[in-house]
Amino acid sequence: AAGQAFSFIAASTNTGAVTVAVDGLTAKNVKVGSTALTSGQIAADTMVSIRYDGTQFQLLDGKNITNVALQVFSATVTYTPTAGMLYAIAECVGGGGGAGGTAASATGVSTGGPGGAGSYARIRLTASQIGASQAVTVPAAASGGAAGNNDGADGGDVSLGTLLICKGGGHGGGSTPGTAGLIGSGGVAGTGDVASHGASGIPGINASITTVIAYNSVGGSSPWGGSQAPGVISGGVVTGQSPTGYGGGGNGGVSHGSGTAAAGGNGAKGYLIVTEFISQ
């Protein structure tokens, strides 16, 4: 269909007119404007991006991709594109929510609520859309609730200016014996060509008896980092674990037949990756 784009890597330097055959179409010329590419204009091992205009294929920006670079961000900074960048694919995940703490439960099991994972999003951007620079926002990791009936904190939103936004996961709630902590919801879909909702947390055990094997709630997992396995206990406390990677929610704290309260785990901070396609 007109408007569809393709990319390929040249196996060798071309020695004649460049044509592309896509299933359903006969071979079509690759052009820059109205001029067809001729011998030697595409070098070996370079990435070429083209778009079908309804009649022929147009070479995007009239340039070949000679390098692909990554810029990754785990803190709030300014993003400056690499010189010669033609376009980029940016993707991110929002910060995971912190889990709830729990009050002591001497005669039963009490578990704080888990944190939700941040949402994921992805977008293709041209150099002109990005401009000279863009503000990158990556907040610090969300804190888990302190030991006792204390809520965790919501995960922070990650963004590339106003072009791409990934929403943070919801916090887990604190709990008391007989009352389960609030389950943190996954971050709502942000903005981008692809934008998906984050995963919510998984509840743990809450009971009025101690004749059960207890485990704590599990935070939501993100595409770039899973939550840790729950702690399993029979008597005592488990402090909520923090997830590995980026964007996951924290695990809730649990008190099992104990006079000691437990804290919830922190959420994982968000992350932003920019893959740049460069002509130099």
SSE pattern, N- to C-terminal: EEEEEEEEEEEHEEEEEEEEE
Strand content: 25-35%
User: Mean pLDDT, as a whole number?
Assistant: 91
Rg, alpha carbons: 25 Å
Number of helical runs? 1
Intertermini distance: 31 Å
For the sheet with most strands, the description reads:
6 strands, mixed
Structural class: mainly beta
Helix/strand layout:
Elements: E1 5-9, E2 19-20, E3 28-32, E4 35-36, E5 47-52, E6 57-59, E7 67-73, E8 77-79, E9 85-93, E10 105-111, E11 120-126, H1 127-130, E12 134-137, E13 158-160, E14 164-166, E15 194-196, E16 214-215, E17 232-233, E18 236-238, E19 254-258, E20 271-278
Parallel strand pairs: 3-6
Antiparallel strand pairs: 1-5, 2-3, 3-4, 5-6, 7-20, 8-12, 9-11, 9-20, 10-19, 11-15, 12-13, 13-14, 16-17, 18-19
Walk me through this protein's architecture.
It is built from 1 helix and 20 strands. It is mainly beta and 280 residues long. Strands 1, 2, 3, 4, 5 and 6 form a 6-stranded mixed beta sheet that branches. Strands 7-20-9-11-15 form a 5-stranded antiparallel beta sheet. A 4-stranded antiparallel beta sheet has the order 8-12-13-14, with no helix packed on it. The longest helix is centred in the middle third of the chain and has 4 residues, at 127-130.
